[in-house]
């Protein structure tokens, strides 16, 4: 897995594919990725922890977001 400037992700081991996960015009500091983890044992989901304490779920097979969860754990970004 490769993360490019906290806005793109590449999970393809055969070739390099770089995409932006969000529109660059709609990004703000609160959407900065502060942590990442696999979401399941199959490694087909990536959990992206954002500065605003939102967790986005990226589906590597579907190649898109499959959901998000709001968390309220203190005031700091997710780590």
List the helices and strands and how they pair.
Blueprint: E1 2-4, E2 8-10, E3 33-38, E4 45-50, E5 54-59, E6 64-70
Antiparallel strand pairs: 1-2, 3-4, 4-5, 5-6
Describe this structure in words.
The chain has no helices and 6 strands. With 79 residues, it is mostly beta strands. The two termini are 18 Å apart. 5% of the residues are buried.
Give the gist of this structure.
With 79 residues, this protein is an all-beta fold. It has strands at 2-4, 8-10, 33-38, 45-50, 54-59, 64-70.
Total number of distinct structural domains? 1
Task: Estimate the helix proportion, in percent.
Answer: under 10%
Strand content: 35-45%
The structural class is: mainly beta
Largest sheet: 4 strands, antiparallel
* Coarse shape: globular
Distance between the termini: 18 Å
Name a few traits of the molecule.
79 residues
């Amino acid at each position: 897995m490769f993360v490019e400037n906290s806005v793109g992700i590449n999970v393809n081991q055969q070739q390099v594919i770089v995409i932006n996960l969000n529109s660059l015009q709609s990004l703000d500091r609160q959407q900065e990725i502060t942590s990442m983890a696999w979401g399941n044992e199959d490694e087909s989901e990536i959990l992206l922890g954002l500065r605003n304490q939102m967790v986005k779920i990226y589906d590597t097979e579907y190649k898109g977001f499959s959901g998000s969860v709001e968390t309220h754990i203190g005031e700091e970004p997710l780590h």
